[in-house]
Amino acid sequence: MCGIIGVLGSSEAAPQILTGLKRLEYRGYDSAGIATISDGTLDRRRAPGKLTNLETALSDSPLKGTGGIGHTRWATHGAPNETNAHPHATHRVAVVHNGIIENYAELRQELEAKGVVFESVTDAEVCPQLITHYLETENCTPVEAFRKAIERMRGAFAFAAIFSGEDDLMICGRKGSPLAIGRGDGEMYLGSDAYSLAPFTNRIIYLEEGDWAVIKREKLKIFDEAGNPVSRPETVSSASQGLVDKDGHRHFMAKEIHEQPEVIAHTISRYIDGTSKTINLPNGAFDFAKLDRLTISACGTAYYAGLVAKYWFERWARLPIEIDVASELRYRDVPWTKDGGALFITQSGETADTLSALREARKNGQQIASVVNVPESSIARESDIVFPMAAGPEIGVASTKAFTCQLAALACIAIAAGRQRGTLSAEEESELVSGLLEIPRLVAEALKQSDKIETIARDIAKATGIFYIGRGVSYPMALEGALKLKEISYLHAEGYASGELKHGPIALIDENLPIAVIAPVDAHFEKTVSNMQEVMARDGKALLISCKDGIARAGEKTWATIETPKSHPLLSPIVYAVPIQLLAYFTASTKGTDVDQPRNLAKSVTVE
Ligand code: F6R
User: Is 548 annotated as catalytic?
Assistant: First the structure.
């Protein structure tokens, strides 16, 4: 994840920005930089590698000024070198950016056609160039230019900018990635989280989705996406006491659900080359062309991520998949193949069943790979190859952002496997990569249904239980929906393949047992809808989770609907995870359970 810091203070800004950047180190980074404004002049220092490199650059050549912005970068577009490091700047503006600008290539082309010369190959640089274009060719004020630029950019991101000639001005905005403003006495701060601001202030204002803000030392103006002035509450953060805090959310689980646009963007950025629209796997990864079978294993939610991936590997790579929960796999007499690979999926990297299954696979001559969130964990250390995810620390017991990051990483791996095995064309790869690049924005869109889902959850909390159904890639999502709900709300829930309902479970349907129908408009939509109608014909209450088009086609007479943005059909699980998680979260909050620490459960299960 990239990290952003901004300071409009009364003492030298660069050392303070460096302090804030150090507190963002946990997000991971490969380069960093700071820009300041002094007597109307912008200046910047940037360095690849560790923050100490930036510190050295600053001590060799200090930056003057009491206002500035800083950034830790995790490379998405372009190598982690000084030229691609943030802040990106023109003679008029310096900008730091976190996230992905989906349409940067077309914006860049448009500007280049007008004679603009770019310095880097990053998506982020379109932002200062676009702002400068509006400042110079349309004579806009900094506020107007920033607003116009942010309106042109599609994706999930956060920005902050400082302007030449404006010592008391910082403008920032968020769409999908978090931003917190810290208020001091005659000083203002900006950070990707409250923890990074803890050395300066505990008075924190969280920007909401789509908000942008004009910050001066004594004055703060916040606007919503439509440009209306809004007021956002000031909270007192407890961030200074812990490593990470809840950033204004009631529970870590809610915070982690809302972090998903950002962390998914960072996960896919580890695999995607946004310019060529291709996937690159880390060095030493499997040669998928030589594998005769891939065995996938994991526990709980991570296992469901693997189940979704099974559909992807089969479809895109035509690779035979063996999949089982880790607690069973090692007790079976698996006929391992000679050229087989085994893939383990785990957030913690310490789950005992998964580790044992890994050792069993190794004993049987399999090449071992894992998708792991904690790089220094046992499973990462015992794997031949680690496919990274960039979910950041997950504190809530229920897996949320780790799940969607696992899915994002697995989608990339399966696409790369398809290319290696010659079963996926370059055009198909490019189409899927474009689909993946849209996901962070679509997830941010899906989060906007929060209030509606909260209302629905109040009714679900009164039910005797709930069934989830889905078909194809939505079948594992039905299993995940049920697991999440029972785990934190203690309400009985089951997930079924849509077609299986009529083979027994339908007998349980009545008006007290709603059915959540996961039905993206894909090749299975009509069949899933007909399964939903079987339920409705038996007085069952159907909750249809689908896109606008799906709801228009099948929403009539359902008990409730949740609109979920339309994505590439096979990638829909990453977006549909959001309503599923929110439904579980709000049902549990209604019932007053301990959402972050449900009874009988621990974050990582280290005994078999
Ligand atoms: C459910 C959940 C668990 C974990 C499972 C595996 O919300 O969190 O089902 O997914 O215990 O944990 P990891 O991924 O750490 O191996």
Answer: no
Helix, strand or coil, per DSSP, at residue 38: strand
- Condensed to tens digits (0 to 9), the pLDDT of residues 345-360 reads 999 998 989 999 999 9
Active site residue 603: yes
Among 53-62, 138-147, 184-193, 194-203, which is the least confidently predicted range? Answer: 194-203
CA dihedral 212, 572, 307, 314 (to 10 degrees): -130
Contact call for residues 4 and 179 (beta carbons, < 8 A): yes
- Rounded CA-CA distance 178/196 in Å is 12
Q: Give distance in angstroms: CA of 295 to centre of ligand 1.
A: 19
Range 419-458 burial, b when 16+ CB lie within 10 A, else e: bbbebbeeeebeebbebbbbbbbbbbbbbebbeebbebbe
> Strand 278-279 relative to strand 293-298: parallel, antiparallel, unpaired?
unpaired
pLDDT at residue number 606: 64
At residue 116, the 3 state secondary structure works out as coil
377: nearest Cα among 130, 603, 39: 603
Indicate whether residue 300 lines ligand 1 (CB < 6 A): yes
- CA of 480 relative to ligand 1 center, distance in Å: 11
Which three-class secondary structure state does DSSP give residue 279?
strand
Instruction: Count other C-beta atoms under 10 Å from residue 273's C-beta.
Output: 14
Q: Is any atom of ligand 1 closer than 6 Å to the C-beta of 399?
A: yes
Residues in CB range of 244: below 8 A, 6 or more apart? 26, 193, 195, 393, 395
Q: Is 214 helix (H, G, I), strand (E, B) or coil?
A: strand
191: amino acid identity, one letter = G
Q: Which atom of ligand 1 is nearest to the CA of 488?
A: 7
In the numeric block, which tokens belong to residue 117?
A: 């010369």
Q: Whose C-alpha lies nearest to ligand 1, atom 7?
A: 398
Q: Which of 322, 301, 311 has the alpha carbon at shortest distance from 404?
A: 301
Cα–Cα distance for residue pair 274/404, rounded to 1 Å: 20
Which atom of ligand 1 sits closest to the CA of residue 400? 7
Say yes or no: CB of residue 295 within 6 Å of ligand 1. Answer: no
Evaluate whether 560 touches 454 at the Cβ level (below 8 Å).
no
Assess contact for 173 and 159: CB atoms under 8 A: yes
Tokens representing residue 206 in the block: 């969280």
Ligand 1 atom index nearest CA of 604: 15
Name the strand (E) or helix (H) holding 94. strand 93-101
Q: In this predicted structure, what is the pLDDT of residue 238?
A: 65
Cβ contact 296:306 at 8 Å = yes
The SS3 call for residue 222 is strand
